[in-house]
Amino acid sequence: MEILNNLALGFSIALSPYTLMLAVVGCFIGTIIGALPGLGPSNGVAILIPITFTLGLDATSALVLMTSVYYGAMYGGRISSILLNIPGDEPALMTTLDGYPMARQGKAGNALVLSGVASFVGAFLATIGLLLLAPLLAKVAYKFGPAEYFALYLLAFCTLGGMSSNNQAKAALASCIGLGIAMIGLDNNSGLPRFTFNNLHLMDGIDFLVAIVGLFAIAEVFFFIEGKGKSSSIGVKLDKVTVPWREIFSTKWTMLRASLVGFIAGILPGAGASLGSFLAYMSEKSIAGKDGGFGTGVPKGVAAPEAGNNAAAGGALVPMLTLGVPGSGTTAVLLALLMTLNITPGPTLFTDRPEVVWGLIASLLIANVVLLLMNVPMVKIFVRVLQVPAWVLLPGVTMISFVGIYSLSGSYFDLLLMVAFGVLGYILRKLDIPTVPVILGILLGRHMEDALRRAMVLSDGDFLYLFSSPIAIGLWIAAIAGFVAPMFLRGLLQKPQRVTD
Amino acid sequence: MLSDRLFGLVAVLVALAYMASATQVQTSFLSDPVGPKAFPMLVGAVAALCGLYMIVRPDDDPDWPPGRTLLALLVCIIVLISYAYALKPLGFLIPTAITAAILSYQISPRALQAILTGIALSVGLFILFKYALGLGLFPFPKTWFAAAS
User: CA B83 to CA B94: how far, in whole Å?
Assistant: First the structure.
């Protein structure tokens, strides 16, 4: 009953014409961003945050707009996967495996509609899961003291680093780069400057938005310049779009199973949507067996990763809202959005600002329906977006990034930092060092240090206090396992190669 | 091999410099048991270890782009840096058009197309930002019109 009351509160906010309009606009922009090759949810949401901030929207509206963009980008990612064999973002990679072969058989329209429905099922179930699970987890999170939070942050870095990289040392180094950057500026406790080198611009620390836009968007521009014409593969033509009821109906169990798998993968801190779509695809592949024909363009191979990916996107919101620990690159960006809006995620969010949480959840449900309605009949419009040439798109992205960051502070120094982060991002990605832990480090560094220092104040400097509660010990064990286990599972978790022509 | 080793070496040196700089952080007389130095020292130490590991056990080299592409990247970085400096004093329209045109040329080397893209993006984005989103941008250097009025 409590949940229904809360939902009623949420819908009373989300159904106001203005919020509804924001959700529709967000879904539309998001789908376009997701469809554009090379512009996924992370960098798409990243370059929009500064602009949203300067628009002066209130917290709920901004959150509704950006999460609609986030969900929309998750939907849109499949369009370029299926038609061009280019994943618009990393989670959409698995969709190319069966989506592109299906499109080449002349069933592009079917693949697009089916994946749209699968996305809807995954995202819808995950949102239901979110609204059931998040309040429960928020109650557990009340028991968290500084020692538990320190272990939790460590867990996020360990699992994210362990999962997202092929080399543990490189992942750990990336986390350290982020944490080290977070230390720059005035010390929270003593108010004395650290690592500022007497540079006034560094006194306030480095704005995480500058780092995110640099590492994601600007680095992407450098990659495009390096790739030049390489990424422009010939797409498949889309003729007629009809609703393939039979295929939708025949994949219903696949969608349900994939949603569950994706949702669980999304909840794990640090795992995120890529793992969700990967696990969903692989588990369906093994259920179908050798005769399932996975990889040759079967409907189940399209439905599974899309449902899994979108369910994981919803699942990733659970730890992000209740604990303030993001589960993926995009949720890290959403956490940055919350911090920009002065909302502190965590258990207190559910009691102090229920209108934000429940308004958000209600608008996610609405955004989902809007996306389904938008994506099936309007898919031809989004397909046209794919024809925007890189030589217009990439300069445009760069200019939007510059204006966004410039409008935050009006200082050329932030712009220089952003370019520097872009170069850093390019080098890191070249060397196969993941950039998401860097972002996470910058976002969480201060909180992690504060948790450690508060724990030590409570225990008067006794380090064993960090392991003093069962929750903390459990988190430490999970952290170590999350970091070490992928070393041994690497053979199993080997990603299948993309279909090549 | 070499790339990882080099990067590892740089990481170790930066981490050591970072730790050295952490020892210089002032401590106030009223401090907590951990103080402002310990956490940065810890981060630096872990980073140095990771750097060492990269030197000892490097991965295979990535495919670095050929010299001409590297040059193009360098040009882009220089252009972006100049753009960062130019945006405030020179207004939005002119630096944006030039930067967008150069970036566009780097991706697809056709001069006329690049120039048109630059101008169209600059004007289009200005209208979008200024009138649709209401951001405070100046189209031209302030002094141009201040002198006339």
Answer: 10
Instruction: Report ipTM (2 d.p.).
Output: 0.91
Residues 111-140 of B with CB under 8 A from A: 113-114, 117-118, 121-122, 125, 129, 133-137
Report d(CA A10, CA A350) in Å as an integer: 12
Q: How far apart, in whole angstroms, are the C-alpha atoms of residue A7 and residue A9? A: 5
Assign A433 to helix, strand or coil.
coil
CB distance B27–A192 less than 8 Å? yes
Phi-psi region of A143 (alpha: psi -120 to 50; beta: other; left: phi over 0): alpha
Tell me what the pLDDT averaged over chain B comes to: 85
Torsion of CA A285, A291, A294, A296, to 10 degrees: 180
8 A C-beta contact, residue A305 and residue A95:
yes
Task: Give per-residue pLDDT as tens, A438-486.
Answer: 988 998 888 899 889 888 888 887 888 888 888 889 889 988 888 887 7
Interchain CB contact of B66 with A (< 8 Å):
no
Could you give the CA distance from residue B12 to residue B18 in angstroms, rounded to a whole number? Answer: 10
Distance CA(A99)–CA(A298), nearest Å, equals 8
The partner residue sitting opposite B32, judged by closest CB among A189, A195, A222, is A189
Buried b (16+ CB within 10 A) or exposed e, B91-119: bbbebbbbbbbbbbbbbbeeeebbbebbb
Q: How many residues does chain A have?
A: 501
Long-range contacts of B114-122 (CB under 8 A, 24+ apart): B114/A391, B117/A391, B117/A392, B117/A395, B118/A395, B121/A392, B121/A395, B121/A396, B121/A399, B121/B96, B121/B97, B122/A399, B122/B92, B122/B93, B122/B94, B122/B96, B122/B97
Amino acid, res. A217: A
Query: Closest by alpha carbon to A421, among A213, A279, A241, A111?
Result: A213
Q: Does B10 touch chain A (CB under 8 A)?
A: no
Token pair in block for residue A446: 């201060």
Mutation to test the A interface, candidates B107, B108, B115, B131, most A Cβ within 10 Å: B107
